[in-house]
Amino acid sequence: MKHRRISLPIVLLGLMSVTTAAQAGTVENLERERALALEASLSPDMSPSERESSMEVSRARLVDLERMVMRDGSLKGRNTPAVRNAFQNYDLTFLVHASIEKNRTLIDHWLEQVGVTTNSLMSARVGRR
Amino acid sequence: MIRMLPKTRGSSTLLHITVTILLTLALLAALSQSLASTEPDAAVWNPVASERLIKLPGSYLKKAVENDFAASRLAASLRDTESLMDLKAQTLTDLQLAIEAADGDLKTELRHQFLAEKRDYLELVGRHQDLRRQQVSTKMRLYERLLNKLGREEAAMTPERQALVESQEDARRRLERTISKVDLKLFSTPMTGQSKYAREHAKNVVAIERLLAAIKSHPMSADSQINGRPVTKQAYLRQLVGETQSEIAIIDQEESILGYMAKLVSLDAMALSDLLTGGGEMAPEGEPEAVGITAAVEFFVP
């Protein structure tokens, strides 16, 4: 009886820690949604109209998630690699806001940020290193 | 010790005063016994420098500390000692008046009582000063612990963290500048209206701004101030530490006064002792007169 009385709080504590670990933060949610949006926009399996409607939905979701990250007070001064990278690379993290700020489409803006431009593609050569 | 005096004309009033004073003294003795639990070693105050205390606005912090002290056993001991001091001071006043009105042996006895009461009064004052010193020292240690905690929080802001906070602030300002443009581009069509998050957020922002305005204009939410100028929490705490240090200096000065009063009481006691043993206000200096055997000759010579 005593063991059952002692073990129950320990079990509850364990469940709470598991629950806590399963929750993702605002930065992680944004990164996941951004990855899905980029995957959809680069996917060769979709038709242009399907891609356009998927991007429209993703953009609206990304706008909210980007603003949630910006308004998340718990991230202030939280010196983790994910948070540091997110705020050091504004143009890659807040894709929708940055792309509209620069009057570009989302995918164009992203490609420019990762170094894939028309000039770089045109000057690329196939060969051995 | 009171000797029974023969009733003389006009001494009934003095006798009445004496009886009144003695009854008061008996009452005081009974009170002192009943307040034995208020001895200094039973008087404690242990405030805690909690996180909650650090987060309070400056004026609240001081009031919270004072309220915490008021509920402690140390404050109760201080109050009790002050009551005893008041009663003792009244007794001294009554004795002084009685001495002025008395004469002869009664006056001497009253002077003796007056000295004893002054000694007791000084003991009470000394105890009161010890309790006050304990209060002020505890307060100063509390403020210093709070200052140390605030300092640790600032030290935790490393250059890396500071750079992160700055980049977060820059990102927030940049995003704020583009919000209206993004809303216009994305949510202007009927097909893509504002999301539920955006609508609820906008409503909550309005409510938050109203609440913040109400908090700011609330009379009890004044920021830490020194001479009417707003200051940081650290500067305010340093000011409080300075104030408690000056209180300790005043207590030190009052202890000197107490020392001088004690010296005067002992000199008065010596003078009264001389009066009682020397048979006059001042015993004459020089060698005491030898009892001459020649004076007894008259008993033996017819």
Condensed summary:
With about 130 residues, chain A is mostly helical. Chain A contains eight helices and no strands.
Give an overview in words:
The complex is a heterodimer of chains A (129) and B (302). Chain A has 129 residues and is mainly α. Chain A has one domain. Chain A is built from eight helices and no strands. Chain A is globular and about 45 Å long. About 11% of the residues of chain A have low confidence. Chain B has a domain of 192 residues. Chain B is mainly alpha-helical and 302 residues long. The N terminus of chain B is likely disordered. In chain B, a hairpin with a 2-residue loop joins β1 and β2. Chain B starts with 11 loop residues before the first helix and ends with a helix. In chain B, α1 packs antiparallel against α4, α4 packs antiparallel against α5 and α5 runs antiparallel to α8. The radius of gyration of chain B is 36 Å and the shape is elongated. Chains A and B meet through α3, α4 and α6 of A and α6 and α7 of B.
Strand content range of chain A: under 5%
Beta strand % of chain B: under 5%
The 3D shape of chain A can be described as: globular
Provide the spatial order of strands within the biggest beta sheet of chain B: 1-2
Q: Could you give a short account of the major beta sheet of chain B?
A: 2 strands, antiparallel
Average pLDDT score of chain B? 80
Most extensive chain-chain interface: A-B, 28 and 25 residues
The quaternary structure here is heterodimer
Tally of alpha and pi helices of chain B = 9
How many helical stretches of chain A? 8
Fold blueprint:
The complex is a heterodimer of chains A (129) and B (302).
Chain A: H1 2-22, H2 26-42, H3 48-71, H4 81-88, H5 90-93, H6 95-101, H7 106-113, H8 118-122
Helix pairs in contact in A: 2-3, 6-7
Chain B: H1 12-34, H2 51-55, H3 58-70, H4 73-101, H5 104-155, H6 159-187, H7 196-217, E1 225-226, E2 229-230, H8 233-278, H9 297-300
Antiparallel strand pairs in B: 1-2
